[in-house]
């Protein structure tokens, strides 16, 4: 039995040896030493401004990658896994100044990163200073002045005996409205204030009338007794929506009176004479016209600026107002 088993084992060994010679063998591992070597290439700094004087050898192994060549740092290129040369951005032919030129300062232009030359001499202090507009101080009357100017309405009961008590006002009420108008329209010249107050005193019978009674024209009124075309403009300037509604159905006697009613309150009515001066008689609203204490200027204003007639009563009223309203 032992001899037979040994002979069988020898036979099996011989058979395996024969089959081994005929079976395919696995490929042999490649040899890296057989790959062609790549010689380092010298790069001129003039032709490659971002390269070093010589390119590093090709990395062929992990060990060689970890051992960085001279000239490299551990700083990584954020867009790649390659390391960045420490001399990136410079070359042997390029000299980077360490200090700015002498004609530059550290002051920065807020609209760019470029520095501003130190010889830039403009400054706000050299710009011309604008001249402020003069402040107009309007006149302001006292009760004593107005009572002296319009003596017929000085008393608190001075409207009791007139024929139109519902339209008449005393100086006490008129003073507030007149001072408001002087401020509103910037009347600072005494000659202008005297002229307008004298004109309104004459036209309204010393504050007795607020509408036209002789002959009684529709739409004519205010203390300046403006004709309707001026009343309409005045009402539209102060109360545009109400004036538009009053005239929506066209111009009739009733609609004109309705428009006039919009400006018959004390402030608007006493302000009408000053509004007319600064808007419709602007040629007289200057230093060369309606001069202080000048009767001829007032007469010219009545005849030409207003287009009214002249009589001695106008002169008497103007003289009284001019004397009462002191500078």
Write structural notes for this entry.
This protein is mainly α. The protein has helices at 2-20, 62-66, 143-149, 171-184, 190-203, 228-238, 240-246, 253-261, 266-279, 295-306, 312-324, and strands at 72-76, 83-85, 104-108, 115-117. The chain has a domain at 143-324: Lysozyme (Orthogonal Bundle), CATH 1.10.530. It contains eleven helices and four strands, in the order ααββββααααααααα. The protein starts with a helix and ends with a helix. The relative contact order is 0.08. Keywords: Signal.
- State mean pLDDT (0 to 100 scale): 79
- What oligomeric state do the depicted chains represent? single chain
For the record, give the distance between the C-alpha atoms at the N and C termini, rounded to a whole number: 160 Å
Radius of gyration: 54 Å
Q: What pattern of helices and strands is seen along the backbone? A: HHEEEEHHHHHHHHH
